[in-house]
Amino acid sequence: MKANELLEQIREANLSYLLLAKQLINEDKAEAIIRLGIDENTADLLNQLTTAQVLRIAASNMPMCSIRFEDPAVWKLLSDHGKDRAISGMHAAILMAGRSAQISA
């Protein structure tokens, strides 16, 4: 993959992520904070961005989002297809919510 193509994909991912984040925050700020792994101040800042600001930020060569979980248990829950996916997903969400609460404290 060429460098230009990679950078364009990063920019597209940034725009998608920022638009999704703003939508989640508008619909349910508390849930968005947990799902996005951000604090309330960041949620407020994202929510206040204008369209022009979102486009400028999305144009960055640096990815705006990152892989949030480092716990192997979360990876196992999310990738284990032998178990009930809904239960595994809820368990992973509970673990991540607990981790978010620890980081915020």
From TrEMBL:
<dbReference type="InterPro" id="IPR023559">
    <property type="entry name" value="Flagellar_FlhD"/>
</dbReference>
<keyword id="KW-0805">Transcription regulation</keyword>
<keyword id="KW-0966">Cell projection</keyword>
<keyword id="KW-0969">Cilium</keyword>
<keyword id="KW-1005">Bacterial flagellum biogenesis</keyword>
<keyword id="KW-0010">Activator</keyword>
<dbReference type="InterPro" id="IPR036194">
    <property type="entry name" value="FlhD_sf"/>
</dbReference>
<keyword id="KW-0282">Flagellum</keyword>
<comment type="function">
    <text>Functions in complex with FlhC as a master transcriptional regulator that regulates transcription of several flagellar and non-flagellar operons by binding to their promoter region. Activates expression of class 2 flagellar genes, including fliA, which is a flagellum-specific sigma factor that turns on the class 3 genes. Also regulates genes whose products function in a variety of physiological pathways.</text>
</comment>
<comment type="similarity">
    <text>Belongs to the FlhD family.</text>
</comment>
<keyword id="KW-0963">Cytoplasm</keyword>
<dbReference type="Pfam" id="PF05247">
    <property type="entry name" value="FlhD"/>
</dbReference>
<keyword id="KW-0238">DNA-binding</keyword>
<keyword id="KW-0804">Transcription</keyword>
<keyword id="KW-1015">Disulfide bond</keyword>
<comment type="subunit">
    <text>Homodimer; disulfide-linked. Forms a heterohexamer composed of two FlhC and four FlhD subunits. Each FlhC binds a FlhD dimer, forming a heterotrimer, and a hexamer assembles by dimerization of two heterotrimers.</text>
</comment>
<protein>
    <recommendedName>
        <fullName>Flagellar transcriptional regulator FlhD</fullName>
    </recommendedName>
</protein>
